[in-house]
Amino acid sequence: MAIALLHKPELLILDEPTVGIDPVLRRSVWEAFHQLKEEGKTLIVTTHVMDEAEKCDRLGLMREGRLIAVGTPGELKQETDSNSIEEAFLVYGGVSS
C-alpha cells in the first residue's frame, strides 16, 4: 500500500486489503483509510468480510457477478430490517427473509 500512496493518487482501488493480517494491523489499516478519506481521497475496497464492508460509506453488494444492492450500510440494513450487513446480504441474496 505504501507504494500505491507514493504518488498521492486521488483514487485507490484496494482488493481485499486486510486479508491475512492480524487484528492490530487491520485496525491501523482502516484508520489509514479513514485518514485518506478525510484528505479527500476516494477509496474503492473489495472484501468478503462483512464487518469490514460495514466500515465503508457506500456499498455495492454482489452475488454471482451481479449487483444485488447499493446504498449506505444503514440504508441496506433498514431496507431489509437487518442488524448487520451480513444479514442484509443474505436477504438481498435470497437466502433469508
Question: Any overview of this molecule?
Answer:
The structure is a single chain. With 97 residues, this protein is an alpha+beta fold. It folds into two domains: 10-46; 55-97, no CATH class. The protein has helices at residues 2-5, 23-38, 50-53, 73-80, 85-92, and strands spanning 11-15, 42-46, 59-63, 66-71. The strands form two sheets. It has a two-stranded parallel ribbon. It has a two-stranded antiparallel ribbon with strand order 3-4. Strand 1, helix 2 and strand 2 form a beta-alpha-beta unit. The longest helix is centred in the N-terminal third of the chain and has 16 residues, at 23-38. It is elongated, with a radius of gyration of 14 Å. The mean pLDDT is 92.
- Give the uncertain stretches in residue-range form: none
Number of domains: 2
The H/E string reads HEHEHEEHH
DSSP E strands, number: 4
Q: How does the major sheet shape up?
A: 2 strands, parallel
| Count of helical stretches | 5
Q: Helical residue percent?
A: 40-55%
What global shape is seen?
elongated
Summarize the structure.
By secondary structure, the protein is an alpha+beta fold.
